[in-house]
Protein backbone atom coordinates (compact mmCIF):
# COMPACT_ATOMS: atom_id res chain seq x y z
CA UNK A 1 0.00 0.00 0.00
CA UNK A 2 1.45 3.42 -0.93
CA UNK A 3 2.72 5.50 1.97
CA UNK A 4 0.41 8.34 2.95
CA UNK A 5 2.26 11.60 3.70
CA UNK A 6 1.10 14.11 6.24
CA UNK A 7 -1.55 16.20 4.51
CA UNK A 8 -3.80 19.10 5.53
CA UNK A 9 -7.03 18.34 7.31
CA UNK A 10 -10.39 20.06 7.47
CA UNK A 11 -10.62 23.51 9.05
CA UNK A 12 -13.19 26.28 9.02
CA UNK A 13 -12.21 29.62 7.51
CA UNK A 14 -14.21 32.63 8.70
CA UNK A 15 -13.10 36.19 8.00
CA UNK A 16 -9.56 35.09 7.17
CA UNK A 17 -9.04 32.95 10.30
CA UNK A 18 -8.68 29.15 10.12
CA UNK A 19 -9.97 27.06 13.04
CA UNK A 20 -9.60 23.30 13.50
CA UNK A 21 -12.18 20.78 14.66
CA UNK A 22 -12.97 20.53 18.34
CA UNK A 23 -13.51 17.42 20.44
CA UNK A 24 -16.86 16.72 18.75
CA UNK A 25 -15.51 16.88 15.18
CA UNK A 26 -16.94 14.75 12.37
CA UNK A 27 -14.74 11.67 11.69
CA UNK A 28 -13.19 11.51 8.24
CA UNK A 29 -12.17 8.17 6.74
CA UNK A 30 -9.71 6.84 4.22
CA UNK A 31 -12.01 4.73 1.99
CA UNK A 32 -9.05 2.61 0.92
CA UNK A 33 -8.54 1.26 4.45
CA UNK A 34 -11.54 2.35 6.49
CA UNK A 35 -9.23 4.14 8.94
CA UNK A 36 -10.07 7.46 10.59
CA UNK A 37 -7.70 10.05 9.12
CA UNK A 38 -8.94 13.18 10.82
CA UNK A 39 -11.94 15.16 11.95
CA UNK A 40 -13.85 17.98 10.31
CA UNK A 41 -15.34 20.81 12.38
CA UNK A 42 -18.98 20.21 13.26
CA UNK A 43 -20.16 23.60 12.03
CA UNK A 44 -23.11 25.18 13.81
CA UNK A 45 -25.71 27.71 12.77
CA UNK A 46 -23.67 30.27 14.66
CA UNK A 47 -20.65 29.39 12.50
CA UNK A 48 -22.72 29.91 9.36
CA UNK A 49 -24.01 33.22 10.74
CA UNK A 50 -20.44 34.36 11.40
CA UNK A 51 -19.23 33.30 7.95
CA UNK A 52 -22.13 34.99 6.19
CA UNK A 53 -21.61 38.15 8.23
CA UNK A 54 -17.92 38.16 7.24
CA UNK A 55 -18.80 37.66 3.58
CA UNK A 56 -21.41 40.41 3.75
CA UNK A 57 -18.88 42.85 5.27
CA UNK A 58 -16.30 42.00 2.63
CA UNK A 59 -18.72 42.31 -0.28
CA UNK A 60 -18.75 46.10 -0.90
CA UNK A 61 -14.97 46.43 -1.15
CA UNK A 62 -14.58 43.26 -3.23
CA UNK A 63 -17.41 44.26 -5.59
CA UNK A 64 -15.76 47.68 -6.00
CA UNK A 65 -12.38 46.10 -6.85
CA UNK A 66 -11.89 46.32 -10.63
CA UNK A 67 -12.63 42.96 -12.22
CA UNK A 68 -9.15 42.70 -13.82
CA UNK A 69 -7.63 43.08 -10.34
CA UNK A 70 -9.92 40.37 -8.98
CA UNK A 71 -8.81 38.23 -11.90
CA UNK A 72 -5.13 38.68 -11.04
CA UNK A 73 -5.74 36.95 -7.71
CA UNK A 74 -7.45 34.04 -9.49
CA UNK A 75 -4.48 33.79 -11.84
CA UNK A 76 -2.15 33.58 -8.85
CA UNK A 77 -4.43 30.94 -7.31
CA UNK A 78 -3.99 28.83 -10.43
CA UNK A 79 -0.22 29.07 -10.02
CA UNK A 80 -0.46 28.12 -6.34
CA UNK A 81 -2.56 25.06 -7.20
CA UNK A 82 -0.03 24.07 -9.85
CA UNK A 83 2.72 24.20 -7.24
CA UNK A 84 0.61 22.15 -4.81
CA UNK A 85 -0.88 19.79 -7.41
CA UNK A 86 0.73 16.59 -6.13
CA UNK A 87 -0.26 17.37 -2.55
CA UNK A 88 -3.84 18.19 -3.55
CA UNK A 89 -4.14 15.06 -5.68
CA UNK A 90 -2.89 12.85 -2.85
CA UNK A 91 -5.47 14.47 -0.61
CA UNK A 92 -8.23 13.65 -3.11
CA UNK A 93 -7.15 9.99 -3.15
CA UNK A 94 -6.84 9.85 0.63
CA UNK A 95 -10.28 11.31 1.34
CA UNK A 96 -12.47 9.91 -1.45
CA UNK A 97 -10.42 7.17 -3.09
CA UNK A 98 -9.91 8.32 -6.69
CA UNK A 99 -7.13 6.64 -8.61
CA UNK A 100 -4.01 8.71 -9.12
CA UNK A 101 -4.66 9.89 -12.69
CA UNK A 102 -8.23 10.92 -11.86
CA UNK A 103 -7.16 12.68 -8.66
CA UNK A 104 -4.62 14.67 -10.64
CA UNK A 105 -7.32 15.42 -13.20
CA UNK A 106 -9.64 16.67 -10.44
CA UNK A 107 -7.01 19.20 -9.37
CA UNK A 108 -6.12 20.11 -12.96
CA UNK A 109 -9.75 20.99 -13.58
CA UNK A 110 -9.59 23.53 -10.74
CA UNK A 111 -6.36 24.93 -12.17
CA UNK A 112 -7.95 25.22 -15.62
CA UNK A 113 -11.03 26.89 -14.14
CA UNK A 114 -8.88 29.43 -12.30
CA UNK A 115 -7.02 30.36 -15.47
CA UNK A 116 -10.25 30.54 -17.47
CA UNK A 117 -12.13 32.69 -14.98
CA UNK A 118 -9.08 34.91 -14.55
CA UNK A 119 -9.35 35.61 -18.27
CA UNK A 120 -13.01 36.53 -17.86
CA UNK A 121 -11.96 39.32 -15.48
CA UNK A 122 -10.95 41.37 -18.51
CA UNK A 123 -14.16 40.55 -20.33
CA UNK A 124 -17.36 40.28 -18.23
CA UNK A 125 -19.07 41.47 -21.37
CA UNK A 126 -22.35 43.30 -21.52
CA UNK A 127 -23.87 44.47 -24.79
CA UNK A 128 -24.56 47.68 -26.66
CA UNK A 129 -27.50 47.97 -29.02
CA UNK A 130 -29.18 50.71 -31.06
CA UNK A 131 -32.17 52.51 -29.62
CA UNK A 132 -35.43 52.83 -31.51
CA UNK A 133 -35.33 56.55 -30.68
CA UNK A 134 -32.90 59.24 -31.84
CA UNK A 135 -30.13 60.57 -29.59
CA UNK A 136 -30.47 57.67 -27.22
CA UNK A 137 -27.91 54.97 -26.32
CA UNK A 138 -28.62 51.50 -24.83
CA UNK A 139 -26.31 49.07 -23.07
CA UNK A 140 -26.15 46.30 -20.50
CA UNK A 141 -23.56 45.70 -17.82
CA UNK A 142 -22.91 42.96 -15.27
CA UNK A 143 -23.07 43.45 -11.52
CA UNK A 144 -22.32 41.07 -8.62
CA UNK A 145 -25.23 39.88 -6.50
CA UNK A 146 -23.89 39.43 -2.97
CA UNK A 147 -23.05 36.49 -0.72
CA UNK A 148 -23.14 33.12 -2.51
CA UNK A 149 -23.77 29.91 -0.55
CA UNK A 150 -22.02 26.96 -2.21
CA UNK A 151 -22.78 23.37 -1.21
CA UNK A 152 -20.29 20.95 -2.77
CA UNK A 153 -20.11 17.13 -3.00
CA UNK A 154 -17.37 14.63 -2.28
CA UNK A 155 -16.86 13.08 -5.71
CA UNK A 156 -15.03 16.10 -7.21
CA UNK A 157 -13.73 17.61 -3.98
CA UNK A 158 -11.41 20.20 -5.56
CA UNK A 159 -12.91 20.66 -9.02
CA UNK A 160 -16.52 21.40 -8.05
CA UNK A 161 -15.67 24.01 -5.38
CA UNK A 162 -13.70 25.73 -8.14
CA UNK A 163 -16.62 25.51 -10.61
CA UNK A 164 -18.82 27.34 -8.15
CA UNK A 165 -16.50 29.75 -6.35
CA UNK A 166 -14.27 31.09 -9.14
CA UNK A 167 -16.99 32.53 -11.42
CA UNK A 168 -18.69 33.91 -8.32
CA UNK A 169 -15.48 35.61 -7.20
CA UNK A 170 -14.48 37.07 -10.55
CA UNK A 171 -17.96 38.58 -10.86
CA UNK A 172 -17.39 40.38 -7.53
CA UNK A 173 -19.41 38.21 -5.16
CA UNK A 174 -18.22 36.80 -1.85
CA UNK A 175 -18.75 33.14 -0.92
CA UNK A 176 -19.42 30.71 1.91
CA UNK A 177 -18.61 27.09 1.04
CA UNK A 178 -20.22 24.15 2.87
CA UNK A 179 -18.33 21.08 1.59
CA UNK A 180 -19.14 17.41 1.98
CA UNK A 181 -18.29 15.86 5.34
CA UNK A 182 -16.24 13.17 3.54
CA UNK A 183 -13.74 15.47 1.84
CA UNK A 184 -13.25 18.42 4.16
CA UNK A 185 -9.48 18.42 3.85
CA UNK A 186 -9.69 18.82 0.06
CA UNK A 187 -12.01 21.82 0.35
CA UNK A 188 -9.83 23.35 3.06
CA UNK A 189 -6.68 22.97 0.97
CA UNK A 190 -8.47 24.54 -2.00
CA UNK A 191 -9.43 27.67 -0.05
CA UNK A 192 -5.91 27.77 1.39
CA UNK A 193 -4.71 28.20 -2.19
CA UNK A 194 -7.13 31.09 -2.72
CA UNK A 195 -5.97 32.78 0.47
CA UNK A 196 -2.33 32.15 -0.40
CA UNK A 197 -3.00 33.93 -3.72
CA UNK A 198 -4.10 37.06 -1.86
CA UNK A 199 -7.87 37.03 -1.44
CA UNK A 200 -8.90 39.57 1.22
CA UNK A 201 -10.34 38.21 4.50
CA UNK A 202 -14.04 37.41 4.31
CA UNK A 203 -14.21 37.14 0.53
CA UNK A 204 -14.08 33.35 0.74
CA UNK A 205 -15.20 31.43 3.83
CA UNK A 206 -15.67 27.73 4.52
CA UNK A 207 -17.80 26.07 7.20
CA UNK A 208 -17.78 22.29 7.56
CA UNK A 209 -20.62 20.37 9.11
CA UNK A 210 -23.65 18.26 8.38
CA UNK A 211 -26.22 19.10 5.77
CA UNK A 212 -28.95 19.05 8.38
CA UNK A 213 -27.28 21.81 10.42
CA UNK A 214 -24.66 23.81 8.52
CA UNK A 215 -26.14 23.17 5.08
CA UNK A 216 -29.67 24.00 6.17
CA UNK A 217 -28.53 27.18 7.92
CA UNK A 218 -26.79 28.35 4.75
CA UNK A 219 -29.80 27.58 2.56
CA UNK A 220 -32.20 29.44 4.83
CA UNK A 221 -29.95 32.41 5.65
CA UNK A 222 -31.65 35.71 4.70
CA UNK A 223 -28.32 37.35 3.78
CA UNK A 224 -27.43 34.70 1.19
CA UNK A 225 -29.26 35.65 -2.03
CA UNK A 226 -27.44 33.07 -4.23
CA UNK A 227 -27.25 29.31 -3.72
CA UNK A 228 -25.54 26.65 -5.80
CA UNK A 229 -25.70 23.02 -4.74
CA UNK A 230 -24.50 19.74 -6.27
CA UNK A 231 -25.87 16.51 -4.83
CA UNK A 232 -28.72 14.04 -4.85
CA UNK A 233 -32.19 14.71 -6.22
CA UNK A 234 -33.71 14.33 -2.77
CA UNK A 235 -31.39 16.96 -1.30
CA UNK A 236 -31.89 19.21 -4.32
CA UNK A 237 -35.65 19.22 -3.89
CA UNK A 238 -35.29 20.01 -0.18
CA UNK A 239 -32.89 22.87 -0.91
CA UNK A 240 -35.27 24.26 -3.53
CA UNK A 241 -38.22 24.09 -1.13
CA UNK A 242 -36.35 25.83 1.68
CA UNK A 243 -34.90 28.53 -0.59
CA UNK A 244 -38.17 29.27 -2.39
CA UNK A 245 -39.84 31.49 0.27
CA UNK A 246 -36.95 33.98 -0.05
CA UNK A 247 -36.92 33.83 -3.87
CA UNK A 248 -33.22 33.02 -3.90
CA UNK A 249 -31.19 32.81 -7.06
CA UNK A 250 -30.84 29.01 -7.06
CA UNK A 251 -28.86 26.43 -9.01
CA UNK A 252 -29.11 22.72 -8.25
CA UNK A 253 -27.02 20.12 -10.11
CA UNK A 254 -28.42 16.67 -9.43
CA UNK A 255 -28.36 13.09 -10.71
CA UNK A 256 -28.03 11.29 -14.01
CA UNK A 257 -28.80 7.97 -15.68
CA UNK A 258 -26.61 8.36 -18.70
CA UNK A 259 -26.67 6.19 -21.78
CA UNK A 260 -24.15 5.19 -24.44
CA UNK A 261 -25.75 4.16 -27.74
CA UNK A 262 -23.67 1.65 -29.72
CA UNK A 263 -24.84 1.01 -33.28
CA UNK A 264 -24.12 -1.96 -35.54
CA UNK A 265 -21.34 -0.18 -37.47
CA UNK A 266 -19.37 0.81 -34.36
CA UNK A 267 -15.74 -0.06 -33.70
CA UNK A 268 -16.41 -2.43 -30.81
CA UNK A 269 -12.89 -2.36 -29.38
CA UNK A 270 -13.12 1.42 -29.15
CA UNK A 271 -16.65 1.19 -27.75
CA UNK A 272 -15.44 -1.09 -24.95
CA UNK A 273 -12.73 1.39 -23.99
CA UNK A 274 -15.28 4.23 -23.93
CA UNK A 275 -17.67 2.16 -21.81
CA UNK A 276 -14.97 1.16 -19.32
CA UNK A 277 -14.02 4.80 -18.79
CA UNK A 278 -17.63 5.94 -18.55
CA UNK A 279 -18.98 3.15 -16.36
CA UNK A 280 -16.02 2.63 -14.03
CA UNK A 281 -14.22 5.97 -13.90
CA UNK A 282 -14.30 7.18 -10.27
CA UNK A 283 -15.71 3.70 -9.54
CA UNK A 284 -18.96 4.83 -11.16
CA UNK A 285 -19.36 7.67 -8.64
CA UNK A 286 -20.03 10.39 -11.19
CA UNK A 287 -23.30 12.01 -12.17
CA UNK A 288 -22.13 11.49 -15.78
CA UNK A 289 -21.34 7.78 -15.37
CA UNK A 290 -22.36 5.55 -18.28
CA UNK A 291 -24.77 3.28 -16.46
CA UNK A 292 -26.84 2.24 -19.50
CA UNK A 293 -25.35 0.76 -22.67
CA UNK A 294 -28.03 0.83 -25.39
CA UNK A 295 -26.82 -1.61 -28.05
CA UNK A 296 -28.18 -2.37 -31.50
CA UNK A 297 -29.03 -6.06 -31.82
CA UNK A 298 -26.49 -6.85 -34.54
CA UNK A 299 -23.50 -6.22 -32.26
CA UNK A 300 -25.08 -6.80 -28.85
CA UNK A 301 -23.64 -10.25 -28.17
CA UNK A 302 -20.18 -9.41 -29.49
CA UNK A 303 -20.03 -6.22 -27.44
CA UNK A 304 -21.20 -8.03 -24.31
CA UNK A 305 -18.49 -10.66 -24.70
CA UNK A 306 -15.76 -8.04 -25.18
CA UNK A 307 -17.04 -5.84 -22.35
CA UNK A 308 -17.23 -8.68 -19.82
CA UNK A 309 -13.73 -9.80 -20.71
CA UNK A 310 -12.39 -6.27 -20.36
CA UNK A 311 -14.25 -5.62 -17.08
CA UNK A 312 -12.62 -8.70 -15.58
CA UNK A 313 -9.17 -7.26 -16.32
CA UNK A 314 -9.81 -4.08 -14.32
CA UNK A 315 -7.67 -3.95 -11.18
CA UNK A 316 -9.34 -2.80 -7.97
CA UNK A 317 -7.24 -1.41 -5.13
CA UNK A 318 -5.65 1.61 -3.50
CA UNK A 319 -6.06 4.66 -5.71
CA UNK A 320 -2.44 5.78 -5.48
CA UNK A 321 -1.14 2.49 -6.89
CA UNK A 322 -0.05 2.95 -10.50
CA UNK A 323 -1.58 -0.30 -11.78
CA UNK A 324 -5.05 0.19 -10.26
CA UNK A 325 -8.07 1.07 -12.44
CA UNK A 326 -10.77 1.30 -9.74
CA UNK A 327 -10.35 2.67 -6.27
CA UNK A 328 -12.76 2.21 -3.37
CA UNK A 329 -16.21 3.74 -3.11
CA UNK A 330 -16.49 6.57 -0.66
CA UNK A 331 -18.15 5.00 2.39
CA UNK A 332 -19.87 1.87 3.69
CA UNK A 333 -23.34 3.25 2.93
CA UNK A 334 -22.34 3.64 -0.73
CA UNK A 335 -21.11 0.04 -0.82
CA UNK A 336 -24.34 -1.19 0.74
CA UNK A 337 -26.43 0.80 -1.76
CA UNK A 338 -24.57 -0.78 -4.68
CA UNK A 339 -25.12 -4.23 -3.19
CA UNK A 340 -28.86 -3.50 -2.83
CA UNK A 341 -29.12 -2.50 -6.48
CA UNK A 342 -27.24 -5.60 -7.63
CA UNK A 343 -29.71 -7.69 -5.63
CA UNK A 344 -32.59 -5.76 -7.24
CA UNK A 345 -31.08 -6.39 -10.67
CA UNK A 346 -30.66 -10.11 -10.04
CA UNK A 347 -34.22 -10.41 -8.81
CA UNK A 348 -35.80 -8.38 -11.61
CA UNK A 349 -37.47 -10.68 -14.10
CA UNK A 350 -35.16 -11.30 -17.06
CA UNK A 351 -31.97 -9.45 -16.10
CA UNK A 352 -28.72 -11.44 -16.03
CA UNK A 353 -25.62 -10.66 -13.98
CA UNK A 354 -22.86 -11.11 -16.57
CA UNK A 355 -19.89 -10.34 -14.29
CA UNK A 356 -19.00 -8.74 -10.98
CA UNK A 357 -21.75 -8.07 -8.50
CA UNK A 358 -19.84 -8.45 -5.24
CA UNK A 359 -17.29 -6.83 -3.00
CA UNK A 360 -13.84 -7.01 -4.54
CA UNK A 361 -11.00 -9.11 -3.21
CA UNK A 362 -8.12 -6.86 -2.12
CA UNK A 363 -4.85 -7.37 -0.21
CA UNK A 364 -5.08 -7.88 3.53
CA UNK A 365 -3.84 -4.37 4.31
CA UNK A 366 -6.87 -2.99 2.43
CA UNK A 367 -9.41 -5.35 3.98
CA UNK A 368 -11.07 -2.51 5.91
CA UNK A 369 -11.69 -0.51 2.72
CA UNK A 370 -14.84 -0.32 0.61
CA UNK A 371 -14.27 -1.96 -2.76
CA UNK A 372 -16.70 -3.30 -5.37
CA UNK A 373 -16.07 -5.27 -8.54
CA UNK A 374 -16.81 -3.75 -11.96
CA UNK A 375 -20.25 -5.14 -12.74
CA UNK A 376 -22.15 -5.77 -15.99
CA UNK A 377 -25.82 -6.68 -16.34
CA UNK A 378 -27.35 -7.89 -19.60
CA UNK A 379 -30.87 -8.81 -20.75
CA UNK A 380 -32.02 -5.57 -19.14
CA UNK A 381 -35.23 -3.89 -20.27
CA UNK A 382 -35.65 -0.09 -20.25
CA UNK A 383 -38.16 0.02 -17.37
CA UNK A 384 -36.19 -2.09 -14.89
CA UNK A 385 -35.05 -0.23 -11.79
CA UNK A 386 -31.38 -0.76 -12.62
CA UNK A 387 -32.09 0.99 -15.94
CA UNK A 388 -34.02 3.87 -14.36
CA UNK A 389 -32.43 4.71 -10.99
CA UNK A 390 -29.00 6.16 -10.25
CA UNK A 391 -26.80 3.55 -8.55
CA UNK A 392 -23.60 5.63 -8.21
CA UNK A 393 -21.24 2.70 -8.36
CA UNK A 394 -19.32 0.56 -10.87
CA UNK A 395 -22.43 -1.04 -12.38
CA UNK A 396 -23.64 -0.79 -15.98
CA UNK A 397 -26.50 -2.47 -17.84
CA UNK A 398 -26.83 -3.53 -21.48
CA UNK A 399 -30.17 -2.89 -23.18
CA UNK A 400 -30.78 -4.44 -26.62
CA UNK A 401 -32.56 -2.33 -29.29
CA UNK A 402 -33.34 -2.85 -32.97
CA UNK A 403 -32.42 0.52 -34.49
CA UNK A 404 -31.43 4.11 -33.79
CA UNK A 405 -35.03 5.28 -33.32
CA UNK A 406 -35.61 2.74 -30.58
CA UNK A 407 -32.24 3.60 -29.03
CA UNK A 408 -33.20 7.28 -28.84
CA UNK A 409 -36.57 6.38 -27.31
CA UNK A 410 -34.88 4.22 -24.66
CA UNK A 411 -32.25 6.87 -23.96
CA UNK A 412 -34.90 9.54 -23.40
CA UNK A 413 -37.05 7.25 -21.25
CA UNK A 414 -35.64 8.15 -17.82
CA UNK A 415 -36.33 11.11 -15.52
CA UNK A 416 -32.76 12.37 -16.05
CA UNK A 417 -30.94 14.13 -18.85
CA UNK A 418 -27.30 14.92 -18.10
CA UNK A 419 -24.92 13.17 -20.50
CA UNK A 420 -25.28 10.90 -23.50
CA UNK A 421 -23.09 9.34 -26.17
CA UNK A 422 -23.41 7.72 -29.58
CA UNK A 423 -20.75 5.42 -31.00
CA UNK A 424 -21.16 4.89 -34.73
CA UNK A 425 -19.28 5.49 -37.97
CA UNK A 426 -22.38 6.92 -39.68
CA UNK A 427 -22.44 10.72 -39.79
CA UNK A 428 -26.19 10.94 -40.32
CA UNK A 429 -26.84 8.79 -37.24
CA UNK A 430 -24.54 11.00 -35.19
CA UNK A 431 -26.35 14.15 -36.29
CA UNK A 432 -29.80 12.67 -35.74
CA UNK A 433 -28.83 11.49 -32.28
CA UNK A 434 -27.18 14.79 -31.39
CA UNK A 435 -30.49 16.56 -32.02
CA UNK A 436 -32.83 13.94 -30.56
CA UNK A 437 -31.16 13.03 -27.24
CA UNK A 438 -32.77 14.91 -24.36
CA UNK A 439 -29.51 15.61 -22.59
CA UNK A 440 -27.47 18.62 -21.52
CA UNK A 441 -24.26 17.03 -22.83
CA UNK A 442 -23.86 14.82 -25.90
CA UNK A 443 -20.67 13.03 -26.92
CA UNK A 444 -20.30 11.76 -30.48
CA UNK A 445 -17.92 8.81 -30.77
CA UNK A 446 -16.86 8.83 -27.13
CA UNK A 447 -18.14 7.98 -23.66
CA UNK A 448 -20.34 10.03 -21.33
CA UNK A 449 -17.79 11.51 -18.92
CA UNK A 450 -15.38 14.40 -19.26
CA UNK A 451 -16.02 18.15 -19.36
CA UNK A 452 -14.00 21.19 -20.40
CA UNK A 453 -14.11 24.31 -18.25
CA UNK A 454 -14.93 26.79 -21.02
CA UNK A 455 -18.17 24.99 -21.91
CA UNK A 456 -21.42 24.84 -19.92
CA UNK A 457 -22.01 21.78 -17.73
CA UNK A 458 -25.45 20.64 -16.64
CA UNK A 459 -28.55 18.74 -17.67
CA UNK A 460 -32.27 18.78 -18.31
CA UNK A 461 -35.33 17.25 -16.68
CA UNK A 462 -34.63 15.94 -13.14
CA UNK A 463 -30.89 16.53 -13.50
CA UNK A 464 -31.21 20.19 -12.52
CA UNK A 465 -33.23 23.38 -12.63
CA UNK A 466 -31.97 24.81 -15.91
CA UNK A 467 -28.79 26.63 -14.91
CA UNK A 468 -25.33 25.57 -16.01
CA UNK A 469 -21.87 25.61 -14.47
CA UNK A 470 -18.55 26.61 -16.09
CA UNK A 471 -17.95 28.73 -19.16
CA UNK A 472 -19.94 31.90 -19.75
CA UNK A 473 -22.93 30.10 -18.22
CA UNK A 474 -21.15 30.35 -14.86
CA UNK A 475 -20.68 34.08 -15.33
CA UNK A 476 -24.37 34.39 -16.21
CA UNK A 477 -25.48 32.67 -13.01
CA UNK A 478 -23.27 34.67 -10.64
CA UNK A 479 -24.02 38.12 -12.08
CA UNK A 480 -27.07 40.26 -12.70
CA UNK A 481 -27.55 42.16 -15.93
CA UNK A 482 -28.41 45.84 -15.60
CA UNK A 483 -29.94 47.57 -18.60
CA UNK A 484 -28.97 51.23 -19.01
CA UNK A 485 -30.68 53.80 -21.27
CA UNK A 486 -28.82 57.05 -21.93
CA UNK A 487 -31.03 59.71 -23.48
CA UNK A 488 -29.14 62.82 -24.60
CA UNK A 489 -31.92 64.26 -26.78
CA UNK A 490 -32.89 66.94 -24.28
CA UNK A 491 -36.55 65.98 -24.65
CA UNK A 492 -38.89 63.44 -23.08
CA UNK A 493 -38.93 60.45 -25.39
CA UNK A 494 -41.33 57.60 -24.80
CA UNK A 495 -40.48 54.15 -26.14
CA UNK A 496 -43.21 52.52 -28.27
CA UNK A 497 -45.13 55.81 -28.28
CA UNK A 498 -43.01 58.54 -29.86
What would your notes on this structure say?
With 498 residues, the protein is an alpha/beta fold. The protein folds into two domains: 11-254 and 464-482, Aldehyde Dehydrogenase, Chain A, domain 1 (3-Layer(aba) Sandwich), CATH 3.40.605.10; 258-444, Aldehyde Dehydrogenase, Chain A, domain 2, CATH 3.40.309.10. It is built from 15 helices and 19 strands. Strands 14-15-16-13-12-17-18 form a seven-stranded mixed sheet, sandwiched between helices. Helix 1 (45-64) packs across helix 7 (211-220), helix 3 packs antiparallel against helix 6 and helix 9 (268-280) crosses helix 10 (297-311). The longest helix is centred in the N-terminal third of the chain and has 21 residues, at 100-120. The radius of gyration is 24 Å and the shape is globular. The relative contact order is 0.14.
Amino acid sequence: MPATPTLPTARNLIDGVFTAAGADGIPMYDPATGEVIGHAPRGTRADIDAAVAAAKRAFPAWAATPAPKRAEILFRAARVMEERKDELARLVTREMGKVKLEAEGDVQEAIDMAYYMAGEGRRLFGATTPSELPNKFCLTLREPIGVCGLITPWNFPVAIPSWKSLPALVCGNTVVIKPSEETGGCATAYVECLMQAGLPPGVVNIVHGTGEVAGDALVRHPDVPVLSMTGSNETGRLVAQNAAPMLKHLHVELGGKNGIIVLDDADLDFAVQAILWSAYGTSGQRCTAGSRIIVQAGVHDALLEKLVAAAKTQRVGHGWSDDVNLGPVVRPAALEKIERYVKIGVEEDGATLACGGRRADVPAELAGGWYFEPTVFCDVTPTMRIAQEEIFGPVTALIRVQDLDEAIEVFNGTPYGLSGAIITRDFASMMKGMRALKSGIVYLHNGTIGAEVHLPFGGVKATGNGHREAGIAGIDFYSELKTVYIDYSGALQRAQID
